[in-house]
Design goal:
CATH topology of the largest domain: Heat Shock Protein 90
Radius of gyration: 36 Å
Structural class: alpha+beta
CATH superfamily of the largest domain: Histidine kinase-like ATPase, C-terminal domain
Number of helices: 8
Strand content: 15-25%
Helix content: 40-55%
Largest sheet: 6 strands, mixed
Length: about 350
């Protein structure tokens, strides 16, 4: 607790009266019985008294007792005794016909060295308009968040409708090549729709990758895997949280790599497994999509970069990650690795190379 303001008895009262009289902040000088010694013109303008001359009147009797608030009375009494002080006490002043006004009150004991002559200096700040403005801002922000979530839900629903139309078109076309392109487009649109639902659920905060990747892979499985007993798509992700914009890029990478594995790793309806894994440690992380399929093609011509390769390479650049390819004895593993200490000007390599992608 701060010490009381010490004034010389010969000049103290005159100085206090001068400060009160010239203050632009509403001030009231009270004695030990809370009788008004003086009030600033700003106080009288902000809280017009009745009668106008309030000298000698109790603070708690002003304007039909509107200042007589039990907690304020107790705080001023404790301040007068020297055992406490009023620091930014907030209260509502209920004025007749004017509605409630929100005030912030502070009070200090002035020490003249004469215990029998107690003086309290009380300042009053009317923050009613500021509180209304804060509430309006909070309401607008809340309304904006609700509207943004509604837009996200509608975008996700629209994307699902578009994906359904694309899938229906894929089933009707005669050309296998056209059907493949439409199926790919369907899967990509569904991945974005899944992300939109995840963003809406996270309220624009961090996105939990485990839940997001599971929903994403479930969507891809439903649209591209006819026999889930033959082809299994698994998600092995830690408890990492990432920013929403990062999750967008990671989700698109997963979509491209999983589609690539489904199209080329298991020809002739052979069974297999695809695993999407993600591990992070501090700022470092690794995203891997691996399969136990036929492995990389041996023909160098088939490694020509296609659309899928371009998408993954661009996203890796955006994420400042390196693309790494491992052609194991059984299957293929493609990873995006982000290391905080990695050289920033190193460009990710394009490693997925099928001209149809």
């Amino acid at each position: 607790m701060a010490s009381p303001i010490i004034l010389h008895p010969d000049t103290g009262l005159a100085l206090a009266l001068a400060v009160v009289g010239g203050s632009t902040t509403p001030l009231v000088l009270l004695d030990g019985r809370f009788l008004v010694i003086a009030a600033s013109a700003s106080f009288l303008d902000a809280f017009p008294p009745d009668p106008l001359d309030i000298a000698g009147l109790s603070l708690f009797d002003l304007r039909s007792g509107e200042w007589d608030v039990p907690q304020l009375r107790a705080l001023l009494k404790a301040t007068a005794s020297g055992s406490a002080q009023v620091d930014a006490y907030e209260m509502d002043l209920n004025s007749d016909g004017a509605g409630a006004r929100h005030l912030v009150i502070s009070a200090r004991k002035l020490d003249y060295g004469e215990p029998e002559h107690v003086r309290l200096l009380m300042s009053v700040a009317d923050v009613t308009d500021a509180r209304i403005a804060d509430k309006l801002k909070d309401d607008l922000l809340r309304e904006k968040a609700i509207l943004l979530q509604e837009i996200q839900h509608r975008v996700a629903n629209s994307l699902q409708i578009i994906a359904s139309v694309i899938l229906q078109s894929a089933r009707r076309v005669q050309s296998e090549e056209a059907r493949g392109y439409l199926t790919d487009a369907h899967s990509r649109v569904m991945s974005v729709a899944t992300l939109q639902r995840q963003l809406a659920a996270s309220r624009l905060g961090d996105v939990e990758l485990r839940s997001y990747f599971r929903q994403l892979c479930e969507s891809i499985s439903a649209s591209m895997i006819r026999d889930r007993g033959q082809l299994i798509l698994e998600v092995d992700v830690d408890e990492s949280l990432v920013r929403a914009e990062v999750s967008v890029s990671l989700g698109l990478v997963v979509t491209e790599l999983v589609i690539n594995a489904l199209k080329y790793a298991f020809p002739g309806g052979r069974p297999g497994r695809i695993v999407v894994s993600y591990r992070s440690r501090g700022a470092d992380w690794t995203l891997t999509v691996s399969d136990n399929g036929i492995g990389m093609p041996k023909d160098p011509a088939s490694l020509t970069p296609g659309l899928g390769t371009s998408i993954v390479t661009a996203l890796a650049n955006q994420l400042r990650a390196r693309v790494q390819l491992a052609d194991a004895e059984l299957g293929t593993s493609v990873s995006l690795a982000h290391a905080q200490l990695a050289v920033e000007d190193t460009e990710p390599r394009a490693v997925l190379g099928d001209p149809a992608k």
